């Protein structure tokens, strides 16, 4: 397959250089044979094979021209459909359709035309999942676009072999579809929490985003939701990649790419996630044998290379300064060079392909790990993943790797201890403010605004008494009171406040003497004009009062449901922060050897010529 793509690319290149238009006379069968002989001599290839590919190029050009004429006169567009890998023959087909139909109608048409099960396929066009409820025009689908069909079922067996197998595959596909829907639900829950102005790190530790040292990064609230969705979909996609479920991984990765594009450039240069995602997307297309569907593969690989440079520095200088080495990150560059080599080979660029593939081969030799060294570290109590990462960071030296792993464990333990202490202090401050009558949400927000400084938070609250209405509970649990008690009014009058103003303040603050007194004192004995003077005019009142307990169980059922959905996401988030750098490189070793053999065979044939 790869060799045929190379031959197609080279012949297309020759035809362009020689300005030959196969769809026009005089390229009859006789002239076509002469052309095949000429090009087979240049390529040192079988003349019959060259003639066959030339005929395919000619037929495709004629089909495209006919389709263009038909689109101009009738408005019926042609879509190039790329079928799943299990369909060994005729995987690339043309389908005519009008563009005002919905995505659901196109999916149905593709399923019916090519004998697929409609509910168990996904369509990817322009690197986006086809939305079933919108028309093709609304989604930017145009004439001559490429559509890739992904199957949710993973079996390579033909479903028509027997009914039992078909039923099993259908059940598997249903499970996969449900899994995807649960993934979306769980990520939406996480993103909703992340979108809040303030997120309680004790309640949502999975929302922490760390830099290369392992320390948390402060993310602007406006971008937090998009970044969380991007990273969540990316991790889910990577989990499917590890299981080699490429058809399910790709939609997750494309969704991650969509949300990353909503983040600012400065943020993407801080962490290497976006660059790694570009590699994962191209790798997924390649493993699906659909690399030609990704028109901007070169752009994505160049973008990954640029992001790595911005993130790691020129010649990895910034990375070495932060981590002391760059051995582990070289795994990413190995895959980058490999994919660049593959793309160039598929494009007919022999020289560039060999350069990149040779770079990948040299990096593989450098990164190869002796299994006995891994065993030595396992005996010391380290995990296989820690062993691989440690050995690559220390150029294969077992003693240095053991020290490196131990030091890294201690560094991370110290960072976690510091982060835990920060969270503990924050929770203490939240409890203190709740004791004054403020809701949890109000306490979180004001502490965020004050960068965790309790004294500053109190000043902000006194200057903004309306923050008392920031509520985080069910309004139905509110303890409303019709009028303040005379005892509380007398207490404020005893402090020197006017009786009428004292009563109004107590109404506003639902009988909370402490808040009423602080607000009146801060505002010279009167209430700020922006505060409502009656319960009916007030914003949603808080569910808690100073006499309430720190929390209620009214929302426990909803929380349990959210926790269940979130936990399913968390299962696929790796424990080790450098999991994305860990690879056995077994697949890469095989692919490097395969493509180098193609290129070197071409070089040998050229030398003989």
> Largest sheet, order of strands side by side?
2-1-5-3-4
Share of residues in strands:
under 5%
User: What structural class should be given to the helix and strand makeup?
Assistant: mainly alpha
Per DSSP, the total helix count is: 23
Biggest sheet overview: 5 strands, mixed
Large-scale geometry: globular
In total, the number of strands is: 5
Helix-residue proportion = 55-70%
Mean pLDDT across the residues is: 78
Low-pLDDT stretches: 154-166, 197-207, 472-481, 535-555
- Report how far the terminal alpha carbons are from each other: 24 Å
| Computed CA radius of gyration, to the nearest angstrom | 32 Å
What string, H for helix and E for strand, traces the elements in order?
Answer: HHHEEHEEEHHHHHHHHHHHHHHHHHHH
Question: Explain this structure to me?
Answer:
The chain is mostly helical and 609 residues long. 60% of the residues lie in helices and 4% in strands. It has 23 helices and five strands. The protein has helices at 2-17, 29-43, 47-74, 103-114, 163-194, 221-242, 246-260, 265-270, 273-287, 297-312, 317-323, 330-346, 350-367, 371-379, 384-393, 398-435, 440-449, 454-463, 486-494, 499-508, 513-522, 556-570, 586-608; strands at 77-82, 92-97, 121-125, 128-129, 146-151. Strands 2-1-5-3-4 form a five-stranded mixed sheet, with helices on both faces. Helix 6 (221-242) runs antiparallel to helix 7 (246-260). The longest helix is centred in the C-terminal third of the chain and has 38 residues, at 398-435. It is globular, with a radius of gyration of 32 Å. The chain starts with a helix and ends with a helix. The model is unreliable at 154-166, 197-207, 472-481 and 535-555 (pLDDT under 50).
């Amino acid at each position: 397959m790869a060799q045929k793509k190379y031959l197609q690319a080279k012949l297309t290149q020759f035809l362009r250089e020689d300005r030959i238009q196969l769809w026009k006379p005089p390229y009859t069968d006789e002239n076509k044979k002469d052309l095949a002989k000429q090009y087979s001599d240049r390529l040192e290839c079988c003349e019959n094979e060259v003639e066959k590919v030339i005929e395919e190029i000619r037929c495709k050009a004629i089909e495209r021209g006919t389709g263009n004429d038909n689109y101009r006169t009738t408005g019926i567009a042609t879509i190039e459909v790329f079928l799943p890998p299990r369909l060994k023959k005729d995987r690339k087909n043309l389908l005519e359709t009008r563009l005002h139909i919905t995505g659901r109608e196109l999916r149905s048409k593709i399923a019916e035309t090519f004998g697929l099960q409609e509910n168990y396929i996904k369509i990817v066009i322009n690197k986006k999942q086809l939305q079933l409820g919108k028309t093709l025009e609304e989604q930017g689908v145009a004439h001559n676009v490429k559509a890739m069909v992904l199957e949710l079922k993973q079996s390579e067996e033909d479903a028509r072999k027997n009914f039992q197998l078909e039923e099993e595959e259908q059940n598997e596909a249903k499970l996969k579809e449900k899994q995807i829907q649960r993934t979306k639900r769980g990520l939406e829950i996480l993103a909703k929490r992340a979108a809040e102005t303030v997120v309680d790190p004790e309640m949502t530790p999975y929302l922490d985003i760390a830099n290369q040292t392992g320390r948390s990064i402060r993310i602007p609230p406006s971008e937090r939701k998009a970044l969380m969705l991007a990273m969540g979909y990316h991790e889910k996609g990577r989990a499917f990649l590890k299981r080699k479920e490429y058809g399910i991984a790709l939609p997750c990765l494309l969704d991650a790419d969509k949300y990353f594009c909503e983040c600012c450039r400065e943020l993407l240069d801080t962490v290497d996630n976006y660059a790694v995602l570009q590699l994962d997307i191209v790798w997924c297309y390649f493993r699906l044998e659909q690399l030609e569907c990704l028109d901007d593969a070169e752009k994505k690989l160049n973008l990954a290379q640029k992001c790595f440079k911005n993130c790691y520095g020129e010649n990895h200088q910034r990375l070495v300064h932060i981590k002391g080495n760059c051995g582990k990150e070289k795994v990413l560059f190995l895959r980058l060079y490999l994919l660049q080599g593959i793309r160039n080979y598929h494009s007919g660029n022999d020289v560039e392909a060999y350069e990149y593939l040779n770079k990948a081969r040299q990096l593989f030799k450098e990164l190869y790990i002796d299994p006995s060294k891994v065993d030595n570290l396992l005996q010391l109590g380290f995990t296989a993943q820690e062993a691989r990462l440690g050995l690559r960071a220390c150029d294969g030296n077992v003693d240095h790797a053991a020290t490196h792993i131990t030091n890294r464990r201690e560094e991370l333990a110290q960072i976690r201890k510091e982060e835990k202490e920060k969270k503990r202090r924050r929770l203490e401050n939240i409890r203190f403010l709740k004791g004054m009558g403020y809701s949890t949400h109000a306490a979180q927000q004001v502490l965020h605004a004050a960068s965790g400084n309790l004294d500053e938070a109190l000043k902000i609250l006194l200057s903004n008494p309306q923050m008392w209405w920031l509520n985080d509970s069910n309004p139905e649990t509110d303890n409303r009171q019709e009028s303040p008690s005379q005892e509380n009014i007398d207490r404020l009058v005893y402090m020197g406040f006017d009786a009428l103003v004292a009563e109004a303040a107590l109404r506003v603050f639902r009988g909370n003497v402490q808040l009423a007194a602080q607000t009146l004192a801060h505002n010279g004995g009167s209430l700020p004009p922006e505060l409502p003077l009656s319960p009916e005019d007030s914003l949603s009142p808080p569910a808690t009062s100073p006499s309430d307990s720190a929390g209620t169980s009214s929302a426990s059922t909803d929380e349990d449901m959210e926790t269940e959905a979130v936990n399913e996401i968390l299962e696929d988030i790796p424990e080790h922060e450098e999991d994305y750098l860990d690879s056995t490189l077994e697949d890469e070793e095989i692919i490097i050897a395969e493509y180098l053999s193609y290129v070197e065979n071409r070089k040998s044939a050229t030398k003989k010529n």
